């Protein structure tokens, strides 16, 4: 079966055209790697760019969107499949379930929330899927610096931070997803100690 990557990214385009370019490159790279896309289902911002490029390249693209956002007419109307759910919580659960790996591109609160949720769930052993950051224009470098600080202060386990894949090039990022090894989750570590 083909693998699918769940992409979290901005509903906005960002200030620099490089973000939209990177979203299109990621969509193209997914199609070239024969991978499918799962994402937030909108036609706007980086979300629309990654979806359009993946569709154009021949990937199956599944959007997962809550009914409340469909009403605002932000849903992409030309996807392979649009899954309309009742709540944002259901949406995140389904997006996490449908993807074999997670990639966060530049984005805002929504993207950060989705990213941190899948990182937390990996630590708790709720999934064993790779998590990656597409660090376009060094967008995530300040966040990575903060997370290093959090690890230094003893609030983030360094092994889990080190296990996050960080790349600027979408092709390199996708090739690293397949070689990824999941870590034992926190409670397995406690049991082994
Ligand atoms: P943000 O990063 O705040 O722009 O939010 C984008 C992320 O949150 C995406 O990965 C979506 O899953 C979700 N999201 C937030 N706003 C929207 C929207 N207007 N339409 C669709 N999805 C959205």
UniProtKB/TrEMBL annotation:
Reactions accelerated catalytically: 9-ribosyl-trans-zeatin 5'-phosphate + H2O = trans-zeatin + D-ribose 5-phosphate; N(6)-(dimethylallyl)adenosine 5'-phosphate + H2O = N(6)-dimethylallyladenine + D-ribose 5-phosphate
Gene3D superfamilies hit by this protein: 3.40.50.450
InterPro entries reported in the protein's UniProt record: LOG, LOG_fam
Record keywords, A-Z: Cytokinin biosynthesis, Hydrolase
Gene Ontology cellular-component annotations: cytosol
Entry-linked SUPFAM superfamilies: MCP/YpsA-like
EC number: 3.2.2.n1
Family as reported in the entry's similarity comment: Belongs to the LOG family.
Name used for this protein in its record: Cytokinin riboside 5'-monophosphate phosphoribohydrolase
Organism this protein belongs to: Streptomyces angustmyceticus
């Amino acid at each position: 079966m083909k693998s699918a990557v769940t992409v979290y990214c901005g509903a906005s385009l960002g200030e620099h055209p490089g973000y939209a370019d990177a979203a299109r490159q990621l969509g193209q790279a997914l199609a070239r790697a024969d991978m499918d896309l799962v994402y937030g289902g909108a036609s706007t911002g980086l979300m629309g760019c990654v979806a359009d490029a993946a569709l154009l390249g021949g990937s199956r693209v599944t959007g997962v969107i809550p009914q409340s956002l469909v009403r605002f007419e932000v849903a992409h109307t030309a996807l392979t499949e649009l899954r309309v759910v009742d709540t944002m919580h259901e949406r995140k659960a389904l997006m996490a379930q449908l993807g074999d790996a997670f990639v966060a591109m530049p984005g805002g609160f929504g993207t950060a929330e989705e990213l941190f949720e899948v990182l937390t769930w990996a630590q708790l052993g709720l999934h064993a899927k790779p998590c990656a950051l597409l660090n376009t224009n060094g967008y995530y470098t300040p966040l990575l610096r903060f997370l290093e600080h959090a690890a230094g202060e003893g609030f983030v386990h360094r092994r889990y931070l080190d296990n996050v894949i960080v790349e600027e090039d979408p092709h390199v990022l996708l090739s690293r997803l397949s070689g990824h090894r999941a870590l034992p989750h926190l409670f397995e570590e406690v049991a082994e100690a």
